[in-house]
Amino acid sequence: MDAFSTVIRVASHEQHTEAETSTFMSDLLGGRLGVDAYTRYTEQLWFVYRALEDAAESLKDDAVAGPFIRPELMRVAEIERDLAHLVGPDWRENAVALPATRAYADRVAQCAAEWPGGYVAHHYTRYLGDLSGGQIIRDKAERTWGFERKGDGVRFYVFADISNPAAFKRTYRELLDAIAADDLEKQRIIDECKRAFDFNGAVFRELGEQFPLSA
Ligand code: HEM
């Protein structure tokens, strides 16, 4: 097998293009949706990242998943600040997980509890994406809805404790390459990564149904 970081990137490339060009993402980034759509999307992220990060404590010493658990990646507190800004102090009462989001978060929690390799697949799919395309989304969101640059509303996308994202991603890929897994387990992780992209696609679809373009 080639370097695992390469294999997993290549294996998910097609689905990445699908996610990028999904109707909801294109409409959101094309500035065709209101801030309410962005808010609903951010709420969905809150459910997913809680599942990812609630597991951090129990997985931090795990041989497979432990090396990936890094405090500078943690997003829940940032999402909560964004939602307080976007919705107001009562944001928790308004936050509802769409069915696709529920299924996604449940699967992350299940992997965290039962299968560290699967958890890594979900970790990779979200955090490496946030460090990459997330920065494009932040820039668009700031311009479209007038958030302060790197301020409230887009803090989810700001990794204040990662000064050099490119270097961080290189280190992350080295962790992937060194993962304590044999080839069969690596293949299973790749399959779970594809599932992770599917879950994201399903959330986008349900959001797209909630926010159709009237035109
Ligand atoms: C419009 C939305 C998106 C844009 C513009 C975008 C853009 C990008 C770009 C430019 C990169 C390459 C960064 C690099 O080579 O270092 C990247 C990487 C990545 N993105 Fe996205 N992305 C989007 C949505 C998503 C979504 C929805 C997911 C999954 C939830 C995702 C997951 C990833 C992952 C895992 C990588 C790392 C690939 C690797 O190097 O192994 N992206 N994205």
Automatic annotation (TrEMBL):
Keywords: Heme, Iron, Metal-binding, Oxidoreductase. SUPFAM superfamilies: Heme oxygenase-like (SSF48613). One of its GO terms (molecular function) is heme oxygenase (decyclizing) activity. It is an enzyme of class 1 (oxidoreductase). It comes from the Bacteria. Its EC number is 1.14.14.18. The keyword Lyase does not apply. The keyword Cell membrane does not apply. Pfam families: Heme_oxygenase (PF01126). This is Heme oxygenase. It comes from Streptomyces avidinii.
